[in-house]
Amino acid sequence: MIKKRVLNALNSQLNAELYSAYLYLAMEAYFESINLSGFANWMRAQAQEELIHAMKFYDYIVARGERVDLTAIDEPQKEWDSPLAVFEHVYEHEKMVTGLINDLVDISVAESDHATTNFLQWYVAEQVEEEESASGVLQRVKLTADSPGGLFMLDSELGLRVFNPPVKEE
Ligand code: FEO
After folding, report:
1. Quick one: CA dihedral 126, 138, 21, 160, positive or negative?
2. Does the beta carbon of 9 sit less than 6 angstroms from any atom of ligand 1?
3. Is the pTM above the cut of 0.70?
4. Ligand 1: does its nearest atom lie under 6 Å from the Cβ of 130?
């Protein structure tokens, strides 16, 4: 059983993770529309990771004997001015998600829900990786500002990203 305040926050974060997947799918569509298929591939893998993040919340809520509450997912932004604008958005979005996770940890601590605090540590570590990854690509997109050749080389590299589904823990 989970206290109502913690349960509401977990369900809200489930929605936020699904929104993240939606946002990255919108970014994938943008990149496909400007023929940067490697960037699009990177976004597809990112969206798949967000679905994993969402489902971990889903499964945790069920494991604690509670009911998942699926609410409306906001429509994402669909247009950007440039690849640079997209990755500035990605980095800002991930920093915002880190803030949401930290708030969620604070709630679990305030409510003395040690199981949830423990569960959330995976996300605390994951957000360090998410910010590092977004910032890394952002810095490299900035380096290609005056070099279309550089942008196409980066596109080829991002096209190599492969989504690795996590191995289910027993
Ligand atoms: Fe679910 Fe990109 O954080």
Report:
1. negative
2. no
3. yes
4. yes
